Amino acid sequence: MSLRPAWNGETVVDASPLGTLTFQTHDAPLRLRITLENIDQERAKALLEDPRLADRLPGVIEDDLLDGVRALVIRSLLCAGAGALIVVLMVFRRPRVALLGLLAASVALAGTGVLAAVTFRPSSLVEPRYSGLVAAAPSLVGSAESIVTKFESYRSQLTKLVTNVSKLYDTVSTLPLYDADPKSIRVLHISDIHINPIAWNVIRSLKDQFAVDLIVDTGDISDHGTKAENKFVDEISTLEVPYVFVRGNHDSMVTQKAVEKQKNAIVLDGRAQKVAGLDIYGLGDPRFTPDKSVAVDSDPEVLAQYARSRLPKGKPDLIAVHDGVVGQGFSGAAPLILAGHAHERRTTMLPTGTRMLVQGSTGGAGLRALEHAQPTPVQASVLYFDKETKRLQAWDDITLGGLGEQSVYIQRHVEPEPQRMISPEPTIAPSPTGSITGTTSPTAGPPLWHQGQSSPMLQRSPDGRRQGSS
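User: That's the sequence. What structure does it adopt?
Assistant: Structure tokens below.
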């Protein structure tokens, strides 16, 4: 528990990485924050198996909260009083003035505490504000008021919730042996957010839980690439770590420019940059296909040929693209290629020794999750690189249940041959179907049809939208 000054009096329960619950419990300018750092699985199991749980649990929670609040109030008074006494003494160097400062601080704290007690609203506890993954809780287990009156009927849902959350801790304890060096470079790989705001809660929690050094987003942060969607990317600046972005086929140049404006964003489109010690080359997707009226079944050989025409100078530590088909064109150009687009996670070891990691959808495919019988899971990965060799050593795949689900899983993978030889791809003649219009310089701008010109693959319809040629 912690107390902090705040404009609005509220109580926040932080259950990362699942999210937070906020209660408007009082009017005093204080925020009480309760952070759940771990779960005592044995005690939780014993409580759930207790037939008297419905009678005992309210009393247990009340006793724990009262004890915690009492200890917090005493600790806060002592710390604030000591702080006021020391600061006033350092400034004025007069004991009597320092005692007056201590008295003033005590009166202010006591007044704030009295105001909080007088304005306390017990009814606010049945009207929480959910954020993060727990936002689905009201529809899944009902309102807090009905839980109080019908607790027994919700025991099965509560048991399932605790069991699923506990899987996170069970999985972590049984991961394959890999001692992640604190000095290793940790990269959070995300993709295909599709303007799902829940993704930011997941990304923020994973960034903090795994202490990542940078984030790599392999595209489709937006859904239609419109200017109205630009506000969504402002969350990037709140993440406080470098955010490497490559454009997806749902991201327009307007979207890319909006990302570029974020203070911590690094947009790579045909160029390389060293970020957190890693040399990263990125290439935006050559297509812009914002909706289903636009064909996306581009010729794989043409896409691969396009990638080969823009090979980076030297050999970067990793390459980031949106589509794995484009990524195959970079086979042999780097030890690791990161991609997305497919909304389904997979890893492939290419014949050249290059590993390609295709990420699922960190946004659960956005509204597209409603198109299928089963919800698309929310997926992201944490990659561990050796700080000296810059080679991938291991990675953790994190999977959270999609819309309406509450499962959390982590799977650890260890790279069997981190120092394997990477062989260049044999030279292949250009495809007889033709090449993509655009410059071949890796430092030049985006492909020409992203700037309004046409290509053999993508033509404009009369209404101005791009569509696939027959």
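Residues 138-145, 150-162, 428-470 have pLDDT under 50 and may be disordered.
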